[in-house]
Amino acid sequence: MSGILLIYFIELIFPPLNAIFNSDIICVSCLFFWLLLSFFRDREFYLRIRLGLFVALLYYLATSFLPYLFGNYIIAHRYIALGLVPLGYLIYSFHFYHNEMNIIKNILKITTFFLIITEFITVNALINDPYISRSIKSSGELSNSLSAMGIGGYSIIYFVSISLIILIHLYLTETKRKNKVFWGLLSILGITLVLKSSYMTAVLISLVEILVYFGVKVLRKSRNNIAVFFGGMAAIATILYIVSINIDVFIEFLPPRIQQILNLNNSIISAIFIEFTADRLPTLQTSFETFIENPLFGLIGAGDLSYDGEFLRGFGQHSFYFDTFALYGFFLGIASIYVTTLPFHKAEKKRAVYGELKWSVLTGLIILCVLNNVTEAIGLLTGIIYPFVRDKNMEG
Fold first, then answer.
1. Pair 59, 335: CB distance under 8 Å
2. Distances from the Cα of 321 to the Cαs of 235, 278, 294, 334, 368, in angstroms?
3. Strand, coil or helix: what is 255?
């Protein structure tokens, strides 16, 4: 079973394998065989399965096979290929239940090695071409050739953008010097990758996660800090607003180097704002309006999916949450939120640092699921890596 998971995880974060094998087939096969082997190994685990994990299983089966009943095999294949998103925490919980944390640890060590290789290659490629990661699609000769070179695309960029706060957390909480240096260097590599990627939503996710992490850290120290924190945030927001509407006036009186930095920050903020208003908002609105028209069973239940050539029409196709509501209706839409946030439902215990990590990673995940599509790599991150780090913290 450990070998299956190792192949599964490396396939998700090491692009050259995608160029050699069909990633969807490999990943679905690994998930199927792991479920089969785990069931025969311990049927009692499944017979006494926790409610949340049972809902995750039902959600995966429903979103994968209901479209077949209505002839929408493209949607079925899309959700089948996202198996690790709802079921990643099931895999982790099974091995945690059997006291096999060392197996997870060793698998993640090897996976991290391949991830570092991917990050180095991708950063080097982005230095020469800032938009090269955007050129990588799910198929096509150009995408295959870039993947064969080890360059990461959308999936890797957003995996790193959310995992960045976990790396920073490990750096801040690590006591051993060698490990601290390792997590620090990996954090720097991740920051470089996200900033170079030209994915403004990825930059936004990382920035918000860092803000939430240290915000929760301040609030947890003392309840008296709550008023100070929110008061300070309000003051900063007011100052930023005043500066933003008079930015040209302020910049003229500053040294050249500071002008360059402010111009860079202004361009980043503007790019994030433009990408959201011009690109994301219309797609979210399309999916929302489709859900309002088909609130109970969505487009699939209404049999109202249409095609423009090979492309689906009728929903935004740029938000995991909004699109699931549009496609499947209210009940599976709510279930999508429930199962993706399942690893964060566990009550806090023992270690205060758990709260900081929990809320920052959860915030990043929600931003991604609202503003973008998810990939299986996100299931690896939130369903297995995050709870592993969380539970190691709680062990003290």
1. yes
2. 33, 19, 15, 9, 9
3. coil
Sign of CA dihedral 170, 356, 392, 89: negative
* pLDDT score of 292 more than 50: yes
Whether residue 126 contacts residue 133, with contact meaning beta carbons closer than 8 Å, is answered with: yes
Q: Where are the domains of the chain?
A: 1-48+82-222+375-396
Is residue 306 classed exposed, middle or buried when 0-12, 13-18 and 19+ CB atoms within 10 A define those classes? exposed
Which one, of 233, 292, 240, lies nearest residue 265 by Cα? 240
Residues 6+ apart with CB under 8 A from 181: none
Instruction: Round to whole Å and give the CA distance between 123 and 151.
Output: 8
CB 306 within 8 A of CB 271: no
SS3 category, 318: coil
* Helix runs in 48-140, H state only: 51-69, 73-80, 84-97, 101-128
Neighbours of 125 (CB within 10 A): 19
The Cα 306–Cα 62 span in angstroms is 21
21 token code pair: 């094998």
- pTM higher than 0.85, yes or no? no
Structure token pair of residue 236:
């900063």
262-286: b or e for each residue (b if 16 or more CB lie within 10 Å)?
A: eeeeeeebeeeeebeeeebeebbeb
* pLDDT tens string 134-180: 777 766 677 778 888 888 888 899 999 999 999 999 998 888 889 89
